[in-house]
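Run log, item B.
One chain of 147 residues. Sequence copied directly from the ordering sheet:
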Amino acid sequence: MTETSSPLLARAGMSVIPMNNQWMVVSGESKPGIRATDVTMVKMETHSEFGWLNWTVLIAYLLMMIALGYYFMKRENGAEDFFKGGGRIPWWAAGISIYATMLSAITYMAYPAKSFRHKLDILSHACDNTYCIPPCDSLLSAIFPPT
């Protein structure tokens, strides 16, 4: 069966209805304004196995993370080394890291959705993150210069 002759081809307005452990697929419009009359019953089965390759990759990943954690644990020389990187991280790299953390992917997904839902009331929070933090950072850097 080719894709163009498939009764399960996605069409505008198509409905899928669960019925007796099967799915009834009621076709929508085949062309704009032309309603199709196809109704198809589909029985879908799932076989969910994790598989040996997935287990191998997962275990290798976990072992590498443990080895990496052990390596950096042995390099640590105290609380200052742990929290401040031993003073080896430049101030601008730490600032960019903090700013990038605040502008995560959720910022680009959640703020537009919340703004749309709440009639743009929450948009000011997105503007705070984007436009107010850099000037405040500059001011604080001038008052408290990095050592």
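Observations after the first pass:
- The two ends are 71 Å apart (CA to CA).
- Residues 51-75 form the longest helix (25 residues).
Flagged for discussion on Thursday.
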